[in-house]
Amino acid sequence: MKYLAIVLMMFSVVSLLIAESDIKHFHEQETLIDMKADLSLNSQSEETRGRGLHYDIVNHMSIMGSYYDYFPGNYSSFPLVKQPSPAGMFEGGGLYMIFMSTPEAGSTRRVYYSYIHNGQIIQTTLLDPNNPGPEGFPGVDIDQETGNPGVTWHGRIDDDPNWHVFFCFDNYDAIGFPGVWSEPYVLINNTEMEESYIWPSLKIGPSPHEGMSRLYVFGTNSEPIEPMGQGNNKYMAYADYQQMTDLDEFTAEDWTMYEIPYMREWAEIYLRSYDDVVVTEDGTVALVGTLFDWGS
Fold first, then answer.
1. Would the pLDDT of 80 be above 70?
2. Residue 187: which of 165, 205, 220, 203 has the closest Cα?
3. Residue 113: how many CB atoms within 10 A of its CB?
4. Dist. CA 74–CA 11, nearest whole Å
5. Which phi and psi angles does 16 have, rounded to 5°?
6. Burial of 135: CB neighbours in 10 Å, binned 0-12, 13-18, 19+
7. How far apart, in whole angstroms, are the C-alpha atoms of residue 61 and residue 79?
8. pLDDT for 5-52, tens place per residue?
9. Fewer CB within 10 A of the terminal residue: the chain, N end or C end?
10. 95 vs 110: CA distance, rounded Å
11. How confident is the model over 89-93, as a mean pLDDT?
């Protein structure tokens, strides 16, 4: 079996995470020059004169090996998020990477996390060491006030053949160090669902309630919606919180959940979406992607 090394390739996307302010500065300079083309080069500082498009290439770092010949994250989100700095009362600025891996040949696929700070891997370990069942396709987003990441994935429990969607978070702002993970719990129990929703993604945005944030988890169906096949419909769960630790006291019954109805209607006429979810600064939730007509 092919042996792959899971590596952190910090090209383009990660350069936006690490050097966001630097790149923004360059783009502002370019925009200024485009808008005021009649300005002479003498109007620019020595620091910016002559600079064109800029990008950074950061050497990769090896996190761990994997025999799982597949991408490390999920279908609808990026497995790497950056903390704000500062994060609450602490330094923050680290990177959380949430990924799936099969570290040994024939072993069970599990979900892991790594925390990287100042170019150093601080921790790499199982996200849920208490559940030995198979896991995969994790999604992650970061709370911009505390630097705490929320994480979701699908997995199995004991002899239950169903995949379920789990949720937990790292309480980084408790001690200013990663690894204070909450106890994971089942958020979408597919034993109780008419259809199975897996491959979850997670987004955090503002809540319409003052002083609160809202966390969203989106599952995608894995069973056919006739006449189409799998992956045509979204099931959404969301909850509001003041502190992310509020969610530690929640159960699935404390979340609001419902199906996005239009997608089922699309599937019934052979339309399938390939999409991701965006939560804007004003709390708008947008499903963005392409719609493909499989009946044509």
1. yes
2. 165
3. 24
4. 19
5. -70, -35
6. buried
7. 15
8. 433 333 233 333 333 333 333 333 333 333 333 333 344 445 555 566
9. C
10. 20
11. 95
Question: Using alpha carbons only, what angle is made at residue 95 by residues 89 and 98, rounded to the nearest 5 degrees?
Answer: 120
Comparison of pLDDT for 193 and 82, the residue scoring more: 82
In angstroms, the CA 54 to CA 85 distance is 23
Residues 223-264 pLDDT 10s: 877 777 666 788 999 999 999 999 999 989 999 999 988 888
Q: Which two tokens stand for residue 16?
A: 């936006």
Calpha distance 66→72 (Å, rounded): 9
Distance of alpha carbon 228 from its chain centroid, rounded? 27
- Return the structure tokens found at 211: 């002083």
Residue pair 45/102 in contact (Cβ under 8 Å)? The answer is no
What secondary structure, in 3-state letters, does 111-180 show?
EEEEEEECCEEEEEEECCCCCCCCEEEEEEEECCCCCCEEEEEEECCCCCCCCEEEEEEECHHHHCCCCC
Rounded to an integer, the average pLDDT of 77-100 is 94
State the pLDDT at residue 81: 96
How far is residue 240's CA from residue 219's CA, in Å, rounded to a whole number? 18
- Laid out side by side, the sheet with 164-169 consists of 135-142, 149-155, 164-169, 185-188
At 40 the pLDDT is 37
**Contact call for residues 111 and 195 (beta carbons, < 8 A):** no
